[in-house]
Task: inverse folding
């Protein structure tokens, strides 16, 4: 009943053009972005200092705690896998190295394959409403779309980014522009959603340019090629034994 | 006059012994200090050159600007072409490829999973080529603590302290985790063939030494390197280095951040100011000695003048011109200066040659993070043979000039009265 009333209130506020509360906006973003289970294939185009590289990968994810990523190309990375279980991360490198290496602590915030994404960014499927306190700052037209501007402050120290400024597409309820900050106020990362698609009753990002503000590279384009929500994923995929399968 | 004065100096010990002794001591100290300081500065410069900077080095502009971050994404590429041109333009310089990298050392358990990890600083040198001088240049053979030197690809050396911390033995598998020059993750297995100990905490805390070809393969740096270090046949020479650097950089047209640039040790942020200081040190030292000895010899000159008061009076009384007496005393002081400088230089060289063997400060340097040699030695150079003559002669002359002014104050009319008294 309570959910029904909140839903009615939210729909009415959206319909009548009033700015909903920050929490309502975050809830709608989560409805779009957070999933229970999904299998995705994606492409990362990393624009380095000297040249650009394209890395393709397939991911299996369950909530925010379990994720597995397998790199499909280029040849040098092919077969490398990444397993995330809660706060632990392992990397498996195939023969001839054949090693399962634990990545922990500050290394989780290191760049993935030289891209502008960290391991935390790569495997993040967390709920915004659970992690951030938010307030609406106003509205603005960004990337040709009308947006609300929100400021988010992390609810606890474990969150990778202390604060964020997001521009939320009023129609699609996706954060089409983001600035992520450290506690000191230093800008750490910027992201955009330049292309989105509608599937299974939700809007989802297709093309996301990332830029690590601390790196001198030219940014990374993350392109989601396909996603299958609520896919059937065997449990052993999220085990260390599954890395060597 | 010179012959006459020389006889006077040799026969009248009261006139010459004290000034010669003072000059000799001062000159001997100058010689010992100069050779010691030259040796210590030279040792530090050569040590840094061998491990870190080369006498000159070539890298990309981007790498040079961000050198503290070891930015291998700014590595030198098209290496064969660059080395061929360098060999053609500077045939008396030996060029060595060096790759530096940061990363993690990961030790596997029996299931191939992480047992223990530690941060490492990697240095890739040419260890496996037949004619490579790198093992001797870095004294790796002498520094080998356990095991053996790498003899084939896939073998590496770890600092002894680091290996003990990771609890691994020669022959164990270690995994290096680093980044390729394009930013991808680089994970490779190696066999630790042995451990080394350099006596410097900077190297002994977490160093990994790997063959250059293995590093190029691991870090996706085919035909690329972090830096090309150039070594002269003899020790570092600033004038030669500047000439080479200017000649090479004058040929570069591109302003691109990936274009190569050459730097000498003097361009290094830390060593540059250090070399500048070392160069001015001899001048500062001479000036201080000149000042101190002039004051001492001025005093001794005054004492001598007092003692020779009668002699000067007689010489004036028999009609010798004041200017002639003054000049003869200055010439005499030059002679004393030369004799004192010769004696002092010989004594100084004897002491300096004892210090050439070196003083081992390894025990003191154990915990320092600076890249420093553990043994400091004096170095006898051409400058050592003549440096003592500068303060030795100038100070005696200056002392005599100052004390001899008194001659002009003597009144001829009062001379006989003084002599009678």
Result:
């Amino acid at each position: 009943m309570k959910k029904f009333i909140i839903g009615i209130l939210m729909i009415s506020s959206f319909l009548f053009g009033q700015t909903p509360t920050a929490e309502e906006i975050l809830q709608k973003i989560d409805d779009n972005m957070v999933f229970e289970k999904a299998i995705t294939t994606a492409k990362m185009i990393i624009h380095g200092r000297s040249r650009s590289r394209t890395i393709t990968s397939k991911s299996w994810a369950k909530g925010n705690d379990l994720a597995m990523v397998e790199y499909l190309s280029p040849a040098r990375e092919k077969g490398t896998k990444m397993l995330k279980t809660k706060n632990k991360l392992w990397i498996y490198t195939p023969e001839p190295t054949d090693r399962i290496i634990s990545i922990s602590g500050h290394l989780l915030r290191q760049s993935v394959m030289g891209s502008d994404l960290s391991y935390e960014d790569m495997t993040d499927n967390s709920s915004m409403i659970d992690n951030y306190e938010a307030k609406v700052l106003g509205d603005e037209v960004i990337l040709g779309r009308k947006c609300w501007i929100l400021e988010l402050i992390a609810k606890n120290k474990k969150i990778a980014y202390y604060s964020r400024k997001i521009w939320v597409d009023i129609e699609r309820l996706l954060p089409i522009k983001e600035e992520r900050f450290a506690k000191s106020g230093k800008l750490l990362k910027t992201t955009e959603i330049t292309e989105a698609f509608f599937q299974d009753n939700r809007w989802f990002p297709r093309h996301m340019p990332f830029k690590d503000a601390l790196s001198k590279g030219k940014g990374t384009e993350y392109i989601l090629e396909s996603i299958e929500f609520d896919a059937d994923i065997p449990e052993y995929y999220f085990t260390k034994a599954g890395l060597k399968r | 006059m010179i012959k006459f004065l020389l006889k006077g100096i040799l026969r009248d010990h009261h006139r010459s012994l004290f000034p010669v002794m003072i000059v000799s001591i001062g000159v001997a100290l100058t010689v010992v200090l100069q050779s010691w300081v030259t040796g210590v500065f030279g040792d530090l410069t050569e040590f840094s050159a061998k491990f870190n900077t080369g006498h000159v080095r070539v890298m990309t502009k981007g790498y040079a600007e961000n050198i503290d971050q070891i930015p291998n994404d700014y590595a030198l590429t098209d290496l064969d072409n660059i080395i061929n041109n360098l060999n053609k333009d500077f045939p008396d310089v030996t060029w060595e490829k060096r790759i530096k990298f940061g990363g993690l050392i990961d030790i596997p358990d029996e299931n191939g999973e992480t047992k223990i990890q530690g941060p490492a600083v990697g240095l890739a040198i040419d260890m496996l080529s037949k004619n490579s001088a790198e093992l001797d240049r870095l004294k790796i053979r002498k520094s080998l603590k356990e095991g053996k030197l790498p003899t084939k690809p896939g073998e590496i050396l770890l600092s002894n302290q680091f290996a003990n911390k990771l609890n691994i033995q020669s022959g164990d598998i270690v995994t290096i985790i680093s980044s390729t020059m394009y930013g991808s993750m680089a994970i490779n297995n190696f066999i630790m063939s042995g451990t080394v100990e350099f006596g410097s905490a900077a190297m002994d805390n977490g160093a990994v030494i790997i063959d250059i070809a293995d590093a190029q393969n691991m870090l996706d740096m085919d035909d690329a390197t972090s830096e090309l270090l150039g070594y002269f046949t003899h020790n570092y020479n600033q004038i030669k280095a500047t000439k080479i650097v200017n000649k090479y950089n004058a040929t570069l047209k591109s302003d691109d951040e990936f274009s190569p640039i050459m730097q000498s040790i003097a361009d290094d942020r830390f060593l540059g100011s250090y070399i500048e200081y070392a160069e001015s040190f001899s001048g500062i030292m001479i000036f201080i000695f000149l000042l101190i000895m002039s004051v001492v010899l001025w005093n001794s000159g005054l004492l001598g003048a007092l003692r020779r008061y009668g002699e000067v009076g007689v010489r004036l009384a028999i009609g010798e011109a004041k200017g002639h007496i003054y000049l003869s005393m200055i010439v005499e002081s030059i002679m004393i200066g030369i004799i004192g400088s010769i004696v002092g230089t010989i004594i100084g060289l004897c002491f300096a040659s004892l210090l050439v063997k070196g003083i081992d400060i390894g025990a003191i340097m154990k915990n320092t993070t600076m890249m420093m040699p553990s043994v400091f030695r004096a170095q006898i150079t051409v400058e050592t043979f003549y440096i003592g003559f500068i303060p030795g002669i100038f100070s005696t002359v200056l002392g005599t000039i100052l004390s001899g002014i008194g001659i002009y104050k003597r009144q001829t009319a009062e001379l006989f009265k003084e002599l009678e008294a």
In short: Chain A has a mean pLDDT of 88. The helical segments of chain A are 2-15, 22-33, 119-123, 128-131, 240-243. Chain A touches chain B at residues 46, 48-51, 53, 76-77, 80, 91, 93, 96-102, 107, 111-115, 217, 240 (CB under 8 Å). The longest strand of chain A covers residues 37-47.
